[in-house]
Amino acid sequence: MKTSHSLGLLLAGLVSAFPTSADELISLRTRAEVTQSVLLWEPHSPSPDTVILLIPGGSGNIGLAQVHGRAKAARPHIFSSVREAIVRPQFAIVVVDAPSDQKDMDQEFRMSAKHATDMTAVVHEIRDRFPKARLVIMGHSRGSVSAGYVSRALGDQVSAVVLFSGLYQATQRSPQIPSPGPGLSDLDLRSLRSPVLIVHHAK
Predict the structure, then answer these.
(1) C-beta of residue 195 within 8 angstroms of C-beta of residue 161
(2) I need a surface site. Which of 19, 61, 127, 202 has the fewest CB within 10 A?
(3) For residue 11, what is the enclosing H or E element?
(4) pTM recorded for the entire structure
């Protein structure tokens, strides 16, 4: 009886510490007539050690919206497929959508001052909510371009950067199609103020 009672108290404590409430959609006004949406995953600790800011690849437009009263991404991204592997009690996870004026976040935009402005507003929101947490920025594929250049702009505000399957040099497919950009090849990683972890496949 004592064992089952103790187990019940333990489970009740875990449930109260990490509620299973729905994810939170956060929309920020970052530039004139532009909103930047991010999704805060649940559950998370009220005072996490680390906030991980996830920047999806491709167009970056994952379609964050309220659907039947619940916040969700309309389009899948690599981080959503590995959510259970990422969520931990000591983390708070924030997923970035494309801003309202960008249907496709190409490399030019991801390297721009506008993108840095949007992400600075997101980081300020994160700091307001979790003032004691470290910030780790993780970008996948084309999102790694965002992670690199935004981290350079934010400087000491970033504790670590993870470049996951990074885009280092986009090749030009044909003379008729302009090169989509230099990827991370033009970014001196030594210019970043925080440690960088590169996770890459063999090819």
Answers:
(1) yes
(2) 202
(3) helix 2-17
(4) 0.84
- Residue 89: closest CA among 46, 25, 129: 46
- Are the C-beta atoms of residues 172 and 199 closer than 8 Å to each other? no
- Residue pLDDT, tens place only, 17-60: 444 568 999 999 999 999 999 999 999 999 999 999 999 999 99
Tell me the three state secondary structure of residue 178: coil
Gap between the Cα atoms of 31 and 8, Å rounded:
49
In terms of Cα–Cα distance, which of 81, 10, 94, 88 is closest to 43? 88
Task: Tell me what the mean pLDDT of segment 113-127 comes to.
Answer: 98
Structure tokens at 52: 């991980």
The two structure tokens encoding residue 29: 């006004």
Q: What is the pLDDT of residue 15?
A: 44
The pLDDT value given to residue 69: 85
Nearest Cα to 133, choosing from 192, 46, 25, 198? 46
Nearest to 145 by CA among 170, 177, 123: 170
3-state secondary structure of 43: coil
Question: Among 38, 71, 44, 72, which residue's Cα sits nearest to residue 56?
Answer: 38
Which ranges of 87-141 would DSSP assign to H, the alpha helix?
Answer: 107-110, 113-129
Alpha-carbon span 127 to 63, nearest angstrom: 24
177-200 core/surface letters (b: 16 or more CB in 10 A; e: else): eeeebebbeebeeeebebeeeeee
Q: Could you tell me if 109 and 55 are in contact, meaning their C-beta atoms sit under 8 angstroms apart? A: no
Q: What is the pLDDT of residue 177?
A: 60
